[in-house]
Amino acid sequence: MDKTGIQAAFAASGLSRLLKDIDLVSRASIRLQTNPVNESTLSIGASKLGGMPDLPPEVSWPERKGLPQSFIAQIHLNEVRPYDTNKLLPQDGMLWFFYDAQQQTFGADPTDLGGWRVIFMNGNLARLQRHPAPAGLPASSRFQACSINFASEVTLSQQPQLEISDFDWTDAEQKKYEELLSTFPTPADRAAVHHRLLGYPDTIQDDMRLECQLASHGVTDEGDPRLAEVSKGAMDWQLLLQIDSDEHAGMRWGNAGMLYYWITATALQARRFDTTWLVLQSE
Length: 283
Hints:
14 strands; Hypothetical protein YwqG fold; alpha+beta
């Protein structure tokens, strides 16, 4: 659904008064649709979920405490470019995503740092080589290769009060908005797998931005004297990649949860993908 469709959905839900806030509660996103494939049919460097990464020779497979991490996805940014309506991502190059093979990294603690890895390469991709999984990576932590198709879409915030500084929605309007969200953009889509780049996340528990800000700055205690100052940067965080539990890939995060890779707007603009923070949420 595009912005025009969202405006129509607001009007149909009796929320015409809130169209003034639509730019604050909606964000462009890139949807990832996956299909299991024989990995040998995928060209080196093609975007994919699971399988084996296509890495340059000088890049080693990331580890967590001596154990190889699970390979989650690689994104060829040239393939994404037509769908990145706000041009937030690099226009070329590659992104690779890895995660703790034991799924014991949840993102709430500063010591979780190192439980995931995002690698960015900009430039010549001709030297990429398909890397087989290290022998130390458990079979249960290896995932089925899936091809990816991309599509532009617009997402809505699940907590609009966090996006609007002068929030003035009535209780009745908030209830109508929640009803709209429950079937947005369609009931069938709500039941589908939701992988995406950018946009608003499909939050399962609480909003994650403050969690990312505090944990990434080493703040764990409400009595920490840095708490108030550090908290001010929470809203600079935005979703980079959301990976749903996906039976096609054999991925299941906790109790059918999701992985969320977060990055600050400042770091995204500077292409500092090494500063991402990851959160796992599940029921």
